[in-house]
Write a structure and sequence with these properties.
The chain is mainly beta. The chain has 3 helices and 25 strands.
Length: about 350
C-alpha cells in the first residue's frame, strides 16, 4: 500500500480532478510511485474515493477536507459508483453502478448525434427528449450545432442547428469507449456534410462521466472542429451553441423554473446574451428540486461565453450571435470544452460556485 501527503486548500466533495502523477503534491509518496490502473484512496478522515493512475496522471473523484493531509492508495478491481458502458449498434449506454445514467445516440435516423436522456436518481430525465415535439424538435437533450456554416469555394450558410429541409448533416462514425473505473469516456468522430453531402468539417466529440454518487453527476464535454476541406466561416447566428442543452419541460422558467448565472443575474432578461463563466437552469420535477449547470472553459474562444438561454427551456453557450462570426483557417482546429453538472437539490446544496472554482483552477 502506498502512502503520500497532499494538502488541499479547499474542501472537496465527490469532485473530479486530474493531477500529474509527478506533481509536487505526490513528492512525499512512500514507498514507490502509484501503481497504474484503478485505485481506491482512503483519506485521513476515513472516507474512500475512486481514482485511476494512467499515462503519468491521476484522475480522482476526490472527497477531502480543507487542509487534510494523509492519503493511502491501493490497487482495486472495483471502485464505488464505477462507470461502465454497454455498446449497441447506434448508441452507447452509460451506467453508474448498476443504474443507467445516459445514452450517447449516433443513429443515422437523426441529422445529428445527441446525449440523452440524462436520468435522475428517481428515474426521470433532467433533459427533454421528445420525439413528438413540434416546438424546436431538433433540441434533443444535449447536442452540438451551429446554424450558419460556410466553406470557402463550397456550400454556404448551411444550418447544422435547426433541421429544416436541406439542413446540414452530422454523420457520426462508430463510437469508442474507454472505461477506467473512476470515469468512462464515449468519443466519436463525425463528418459535417451539406445536405448534398459535400464535406465541410471534420469533428470529434467526447463525453466523460465520473464515478459520483446519486444526485450529482459531472460530464466533461469536448468538441474539436477541423477545417479539413478549406477555410470555414461561422456566421453571427443566434441558432448556435456549439453546445446546446434542452432542459426537461417542468424546469422551464415559464413553467416555474429558474435560471441564474455566475454573477448572480436571474431570469432571461438578465442572463440572455450576457457573458458569464457559467449558468444554472433548474426547477422542480415530480416533487424534487433539480438543476443543470454548464461551465465555460477559460481556454475556449472569447471566454467567458455569452449565453443563448431562454425561458422555454433552451440552454446554450453562444459567442457567435452576440460577438460576431469568425473563421477557422484551412487545416486548423477549434476546440471547445465544457463541464455539465446534473444535480439534485439547490445550486447552493450542490456547491456549484465552489465546483466552478475547482474546475477553473
Amino acid at each position: 500500500m502506498n502512502q503520500f501527503k497532499v494538502k488541499m486548500k479547499r474542501g472537496l466533495e465527490n469532485e473530479p480532478i486530474v493531477i500529474a502523477a509527478d506533481d509536487k503534491i505526490f513528492n512525499d509518496m512512500l514507498p514507490e510511485k502509484l501503481p497504474e490502473g484503478k485505485l481506491l484512496i482512503v483519506t485521513e478522515s476515513g472516507k474512500t474515493f475512486p481514482a485511476v493512475c494512467e499515462d503519468g496522471r491521476v484522475t480522482m473523484v476526490a472527497s477531502l477536507r480543507a487542509g487534510e493531509t494523509l492519503l493511502r492508495a491501493a490497487s482495486s478491481d472495483g471502485v464505488p459508483n464505477e462507470v461502465r458502458t454497454v455498446k449497441g449498434d447506434d448508441r452507447v449506454k452509460i451506467l453508474i453502478g448498476d443504474r443507467e445514467f445516459a445514452e450517447y445516440v449516433f443513429s443515422d435516423k437523426f441529422c445529428k448525434p445527441y446525449f440523452g436522456p440524462v436520468m435522475t436518481s428517481f428515474g426521470e430525465s433532467f433533459t427533454r427528449l421528445d420525439f413528438e415535439a413540434t416546438e424546436h424538435p431538433h433540441h434533443r437533450s444535449v447536442f452540438f450545432g451551429i446554424g450558419d456554416v460556410s466553406l470557402m469555394d463550397g456550400p454556404s450558410h448551411v444550418d447544422f442547428w435547426n433541421e429544416p429541409e436541406g439542413c446540414g448533416i452530422q454523420r457520426s462514425g462508430e463510437a469508442f469507449v474507454k472505461e477506467a473505473g473512476a470515469y468512462a469516456t464515449v468519443s466519436a468522430q463525425s463528418l459535417w456534410l451539406s445536405h448534398d453531402e459535400v464535406p465541410m468539417l471534420d469533428a470529434e466529440s467526447s463525453f466523460t462521466v465520473y464515478a459520483q454518487p446519486e444526485g450529482l453527476h459531472t460530464v466533461d464535454v469536448k468538441l474539436t472542429l477541423k477545417a479539413s476541406y478549406g477555410r470555414v466561416t461561422f456566421g453571427a447566428t443566434k441558432e448556435a451553441g456549439p453546445l446546446g442543452v434542452r432542459v426537461a419541460d417542468p424546469l422551464r422558467v415559464d413553467n416555474g423554473g429558474y435560471m441564474t448565472n455566475s454573477y448572480g443575474a436571474e431570469g432571461e432578461s438578465e442572463c440572455w446574451g450576457r457573458a458569464a463563466n457559467y449558468c444554472v437552469y433548474g426547477g422542480r420535477l415530480s416533487g424534487h428540486d433539480i438543476g443543470i449547470a454548464v461551465f465555460d472553459n477559460s481556454k475556449n474562444e472569447r471566454f467567458p461565453t455569452t449565453w443563448h438561454i431562454r425561458d422555454y427551456g433552451l440552454f446554450a453557450a453562444n459567442n457567435l450571435y452576440f460577438r460576431g462570426g469568425f473563421d477557422i483557417p484551412a487545416g486548423e482546429k477549434l476546440e471547445y470544452n465544457y463541464r455539465i453538472i446534473f444535480f439534485e437539490g439547490s445550486p447552493e446544496e450542490a456547491n456549484i460556485n465552489s465546483r466552478y472554482i475547482v474546475y477553473a483552477g
